[in-house]
Amino acid sequence: MNPRELKPNVYWVGAVDWDRRLFDELIPLPNGTSYNSYLIKGSDKTALVDTVDPSKTYILIDRLNQLGVKKIDYVIINHAEQDHSGSLPDILKIYPEAKVITTSKCKTMLINLLEVSEDKIICVEDKETLSLGDKTLEFIHFPWVHWPETMITYLREDKILFSCDLFGAHLATSDLFVKDETKIYESAKRYYAEIMMPFRTIIQKNLEKVENIKIDIISPSHGPMHNKPTFIIDAYKHWIFDAPQNIVVIPYVSMHNSTRKMVEYFAESLIAKGVTVKQFNLADSDIGELAMSLVDAATVVIGVPTVLAGAHPLAVYATYLVKILRPKLKFVSLIGSYGWGGKTVEQLASIISGLEVKILDAVLCKGLPKKEDFDALDRLADSVLENHKGI
Ligand code: FEO
User: Which pLDDT score, from 0 to 100, does residue 116 have?
Assistant: First the structure.
């Protein structure tokens, strides 16, 4: 398995996982993923930047053997999550002289998660540097992309930023560098929505750390490398900083078609008023698509039937996802049908408590929706439009 050269004496030695379809037993991976690891041969020292998922350790080792690597002086660990650190114990067995370079928070995690020996680990401060001879690594603390211990690493002479999960994409590809910008934009946006969006405000504050350095290549931990870095940096700026758009996302579930009739009527009413609608049937939706739609939306309206005394569990799930993904939306409401009563509104409102959103009046009807219910949906659509004008 051949390593691939990014720049002289800088190699990609990672693994492409074409078959993986789920991450964290939660996140769909329709296009697989990759675990990027990089070998840097300096004139004096050799460093490995991150490792790979433990299921692919044999690929990393094979690529290092192909390069004839007899000694690794440093293993740079930007992030303790096992898809990047999981091969570290094996690497330390094969290269026993290697020292692990990481943040102090990551040190604790590596000891807890992987039982790495404490005396193997050297902690680095923000902006600390490490010389490999003719190549210099600078460590930039960049917490919460997407765990608290994360850092990114800059190779000064070659102007390569090893950006950890930041700017990544779950995409299995044989392309070392981005070729199809449309495809990578979709994959990177999906990745941002699922992984990075909850930390949007922290990334806002830290993004200037990468704007102040000259970058030729961004080498993230997943997906192809960016040799036109402004493409992905500008995309992040748009997702993070720009105001939400005139979009309503409607995740819904319907058992006997009453809630479906309400959702369809409401969607048509919004569209007639010039609002963009993204509708997801929770019974068979890809939650990654739902997450992506939340990146730009100003409003979420949950379509929810009442089951027993409360909200349908799929609507509870969707509402909880909206809460934990923390999108930049401004307004939330719900519509749906009930049989004999229940506490659906109170239940979903308590789930999203803490989100800085305005709650618009819910529209609930008993059984099949009737004329007065459709009129109420029109009024909710008017309210959405009016509120969107104020963004
Ligand atoms: Fe790709 Fe947070 O690990």
Answer: 98
